[in-house]
Amino acid sequence: MGERELEGLVSVSRPVLVGRLLQLDAAGGVTSAHVRAGAQLAGVHPRTVWRWVEAARSEGRVERRRRARFELSDEAWEVLAQAGGNVSVLYRHLEECGDGDAGVSLASVYRAVQRELAAGRVLPDRAVVRRARAERETRQALSDLAVGGVGTGTPSACAAGGPASLLTSAGRGTAPAGDVPGVVVPVGAQAVRTASVRAVAEAVGQAMAAGGAACVFGDAGRGKTVALRMALSDPPVGWGVSWVRVPVRPSVSELRRAVFEALVLPGRFPHRSAEADERIVGALDEARVLVVDEAQRLPVPCLEYLQSLWDHPQARMALVLCGAGSERAVARVPQLASRVCAWQEVGRLAGSEVAATVSAFHPLWAGVVGGEVAWIDQSCTHGVFRTWAALTTHLQNALLTVPDAAVDRALLRRLFRRLSPPV
């Protein structure tokens, strides 16, 4: 059998050949004969084999250096959709923009488009893309108008029934607990519209106006969920509100089912995820606020799933993520964090508003002097509204079960011990 016949039957890959040559080099050196024989087996020129060996010595690399592959951004995909799939139009757009895509060949753009299509990405109809862009521009204009009107006393252009009208629904005062769905307070208490409630309502209103996302965060017990319930108890006309109950450590499939149930979709939950997502996105075609409470439980894949729903061109939704630590969870997904147009922290009750707030919250505190309320706050509640609600319940029970009970510091100290574990 001749040398050329042997060369056609036997071949060797670059990593194997370079690894063997490095072994020979360590044992006593690589000769030109070794390199020529290796080049015949690999089907390359001997100079190529010498370059391989040098790259392994200097860089520790035995594989071919991978070139940076051109990828299409969401903006480029939208341009392609508006052009009806004409790659030449997209190529000219990239050349005109020059945003890091200068020098990319037309063939590279074609290959990138083919990869996206093979991966299942679909080009939407041009009319759908144009309508979605017009809606985004309108929502941004509404957002600008809403932000300009907040806190100035000047009526905004959409205060007559658009998303920004939500900002006016959280004025000062109280509301009966029964008027706020999902808010549970002690018997005889009323939900109080505090400064935090007004701030949360403003943040959610901006997210609705912009069609964006809002993140409501703060330590446990500060009233984040209550503030959201009050802010969304009477949404603007044309808007629906859906509350997603997040399981503990959910998977994407469990979150998908939770969203499906929150939207109250008819029929059984589909077994195929593609069918379930199709029905979910179809329901989000109408203006809707999707509230995800306890969002700090969500792992990164679940947050990315919510982002994919929000990014869908058919969806018309404002996403509200709420929970103690939700801001840290969202920060783990920069793509989602960049879409949050309102970050709102719910803090403790300020010392100056505690007396007025708890007096409006329950009649039990209406007759307590301000100095005593301040002492209770410093000794036990520390501006945490949930602790005030629990203390109110314990005080009610004590007054109902103990004859002639007097509200004094001795009674309150005894109740304080029920509100915190032993140190």
From TrEMBL:
<dbReference type="Pfam" id="PF13401">
    <property type="entry name" value="AAA_22"/>
</dbReference>
<dbReference type="InterPro" id="IPR049945">
    <property type="entry name" value="AAA_22"/>
</dbReference>
<dbReference type="InterPro" id="IPR052026">
    <property type="entry name" value="ExeA_AAA_ATPase_DNA-bind"/>
</dbReference>
<protein>
    <submittedName>
        <fullName>AAA family ATPase</fullName>
    </submittedName>
</protein>
<dbReference type="InterPro" id="IPR027417">
    <property type="entry name" value="P-loop_NTPase"/>
</dbReference>
<feature type="domain" description="ORC1/DEAH AAA+ ATPase">
    <location>
        <begin position="212"/>
        <end position="324"/>
    </location>
</feature>
